[in-house]
């Protein structure tokens, strides 16, 4: 652990593997947030947490959002990532407090941008998202949530209301010492381009996506 002073003058204690570097106000279209910038020394990755209001320590409305350039920045409809990020920021702002940890290095469930694009190309040929990763000799999900837990620990968060449909994310946080008081669904209406992807996430990756039941017999074709 080391002690340093942030740019807002607050003395903080940090673990040496994930170090807080800066805190700055960040006004957004959703409301006013504070951006906490970190360096994950173990993995050589810069991370950021957006904090709204005074979240406190217990049962904090929280989203751990895996980086997705295609969805978050380009508005890809291959996945629901961009819409989930927008929804999470909006829900935190509407709630009056909460945390969104944006996890860089998680692109393509941890395989990286170019590998994700290669996997998407295989999906366009008929493989599902699990089969595509395996065909490339890559893990189905290589993400690690240790840095996220360290960031929450640095922010003083002991338990969360986790905005996620992924039970494995909940399990990972618990393993790293963060209590999950509730798992809050973050359900985005599917479209023609991502319905197969979402069904694969439910059937093969155990994501809780009950809203797909209503789409069981829906055809998006002309």
From TrEMBL:
Domain (GTP cyclohydrolase II): residue spans on this chain:
20-185
Pathway assigned in UniProt: Cofactor biosynthesis; riboflavin biosynthesis; 5-amino-6-(D-ribitylamino)uracil from GTP: step 1/4
Cofactor (UniProt):
Zn(2+)
Which E.C. number(s) belong to this protein?
A: 3.5.4.25
Q: Quote the catalytic activity from the record.
A: GTP + 4 H2O = 2,5-diamino-6-hydroxy-4-(5-phosphoribosylamino)-pyrimidine + formate + 2 phosphate + 3 H(+)
User: Record's superkingdom?
Assistant: Bacteria
Residues annotated to bind Zn(2+): 68, 79, 81
Q: Which UniProt keywords apply?
A: GTP-binding, Hydrolase, Metal-binding, Nucleotide-binding, Riboflavin biosynthesis, Zinc
- Top enzyme class, one word, equals hydrolase
UniProt-recorded Gene Ontology molecular function terms: GTP cyclohydrolase II activity
Query: What is any Pfam family matched here?
Result: GTP_cyclohydro2
The record describes how the cofactor is bound as:
Binds 1 zinc ion per subunit.
Question: What residues form the catalytic site here?
Answer: 141 (proton acceptor), 143 (nucleophile)
Q: Which amino acid positions bind GTP, per UniProt?
A: 63-67, 84, 107-109, 129, 164, 169
Its function?
Catalyzes the conversion of GTP to 2,5-diamino-6-ribosylamino-4(3H)-pyrimidinone 5'-phosphate (DARP), formate and pyrophosphate.
- PANTHER family per UniProt: 3,4-DIHYDROXY-2-BUTANONE 4-PHOSPHATE SYNTHASE, GTP CYCLOHYDROLASE II-RELATED
Stated family: Belongs to the GTP cyclohydrolase II family.
Q: What is this protein called?
A: GTP cyclohydrolase-2
Instruction: Specify the species.
Output: Streptomyces violaceorubidus
The uppermost taxa in this organism's lineage are: Bacteria, Bacillati, Actinomycetota, Actinomycetes, Kitasatosporales
